[in-house]
Write a structure and sequence with these properties.
144 residues, mainly alpha, rod-shaped, transport, bacterial flagellum biogenesis, cell membrane, Flagell_FliJ, Flagellar FliJ protein
Length: 144
């Protein structure tokens, strides 16, 4: 019976290692998502800084250059939004995997606990049986 418990413990330990690995990956994905969010904020702030106030005098060449630059910034901002969205999807997926893996670990713990309880109950019954037999033997020795 203990052999079975050891097998389940080995499986549970493997599941725990996988869970720990997934937690590390989740942390990395979370860092990537935060980095994407920061870059997006910087790009959005930068885009707002490059505007020409109405009524100010600027050359056509300057306006054209600012227009091209803002267009490139808008493209970069859109790409960064897509990267952020992908990171969010990846993080949600990782969270789901993490929950499933945690359930596996908990299931292993429950199986081990049940089997150890069963083993202990069997030992307790066996011990009680021996004590009962000794008690009966002692009782008959006193009567004789």
């Amino acid at each position: 019976m203990m052999k079975r418990v050891k097998i389940v413990q080995s499986w549970r330990d493997q599941q725990q290692r996988q869970f720990n690995k997934l937690q590390q990956q989740q942390g990395q994905i979370n860092q990537q998502m935060n980095a994407h969010q920061q870059r997006l904020s910087l790009l959005e702030d930068l885009s707002g800084q490059y505007s020409v106030a109405s009524g100010s005098q600027a050359s056509a060449l300057l306006l054209k250059g600012i227009g091209r630059f803002r267009h490139q910034l808008d493209n970069l901002t859109n790409l960064q939004r897509q990267e952020l969205a992908l990171s969010q999807v990846e993080l949600r997926s990782m969270n789901e995997r993490l929950v499933k893996q945690h359930c596996q670990v908990q299931m292993g713990n429950k199986i081990i606990d049940k089997r150890l309880t069963k083993i202990q109950n069997q030992r307790d019954k066996q011990e009680q049986k021996v004590l009962d037999e000794l008690s009966i033997i002692r009782f008959f020795h006193r009567r004789s």
